[in-house]
């Protein structure tokens, strides 16, 4: 069992118990099967980003609450030492660079393979998302609006509505994603 799965499983179980939810209750709230939730709490398998977002939204907590590590007065991160959450058969890698639950703030580096696109579910009400493109070209669809961002371009938006991403580059697109919830 890898470190990230252990962390996610411990956090989900702790939060579920703090909220006095059974696995069945959480399954109804998150639209994730009871057996999948039990498997995740045991640290088995690799839940997708979509599954983790459903669980976070079902428990009404931020995504970073699920992957948060114990709090220290400082944090140094090295990308090579962070285990990414994989999705889209490995074409999408989400690295949690920083997560501050107390201030509802998290920073991710997301690497998107060629021709990969996805829809992100609406985040908790009041969540803002800041996207900073480091490499490549990223398309973001937000309700009726489409934004094309290239290296060095940035976007802020209210993320409490579904929104989509698509790598328009011939290679990997890399961006930093900062989530803040009031």
Automatic annotation (TrEMBL):
Top-level taxon: Bacteria
Keyword set, alphabetical order: DNA-binding, Transcription, Transcription regulation
Molecular-function annotations in GO: DNA binding; DNA-binding transcription factor activity
Keyword Transcription: yes
SUPFAM superfamilies: lambda repressor-like DNA-binding domains (SSF47413), RmlC-like cupins (SSF51182)
One Pfam entry name: Cupin_2
Xref: PANTHER family: HTH-TYPE TRANSCRIPTIONAL REGULATOR (PTHR46797), HTH-TYPE TRANSCRIPTIONAL REGULATOR SUTR (PTHR46797:SF23)
Protein name: XRE family transcriptional regulator
